[in-house]
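Thread: quick sanity check before group meeting

JM: Hey all, I'm pulling together slides for Thursday and realized we never actually wrote out the predicted structure for the chain we discussed last week. Dropping the sequence here so it's in one place. If anyone has concerns about the input, flag it before I start.
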Amino acid sequence: MADEKTSEKTKLVTKDHDTESSREATSLTTSQQHQHTDRAGRFSSTVGLIITCAGSTVGFGNLWRFPRILANNSGGEGCLQFLLVWLVFLFLWSIQVIIMEYAIGRFTRRAAPMAWHDLLGVKSTWLGGWISFANFCTCCYFGVIFGWSMYYMYYCIFHPLPTTFEESSQIWKTFAEESSWPVLLHFIGTAASTIVIWKGVNSIEPAMKVLIPGLFVLIIAAFIWSLTQHNAGSALAYIFTLA
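JM (edit): ok, ran it. Output follows.
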């Protein structure tokens, strides 16, 4: 009987030890998975996340591209119809795509190709590859815009602003056709973006906390400045009038 009790105690101790070892192994595996998943880091605050998301919807195109598209694609009487169509697609398409993008990223915590692989299977991996390719092409385009912005900022600080179309054209010709500045500035922008992305969220979040609020300030300042210009009332009437 004593031997049976001893044997039962030994089994219980062994079982408890095995259970504890299993728990430790499971905990270690989970910890390793978290470390693997979080290798690029996470946002340190909700504010950083919201600001970064806002960066997907607010860009320099609001300053230099959208007004031109608005004017060139509207009728002679006004462009309110263009704005209304834009708002419809904003709520029917754009916002949903942004929400889906962040939802898939948060659920899988993988880069685009492997995110679609984990979500829909190996046959859908190409979707993530296509998204990555589209982002690459977009970055090439905005790298050029970055170069323009840097050059014009430098020129406008150290030179008087042009007053005629011919002067403006000459500034552009000097920059784009008679110098190597476009290539150099594109390389600088691409290298800087690569470094920020390579370092992950820990580098992206601080940059967004500075750049996006600064962009909001710039847009608001440009809007207020435009209201002080000659014929600002006619411009507002054109924007909010149906053709």
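AS: nice. Confidence is low (pLDDT under 50) at residues 9-17, 25-37. Residues 1-37 form one domain.
JM: adding both to the slides.
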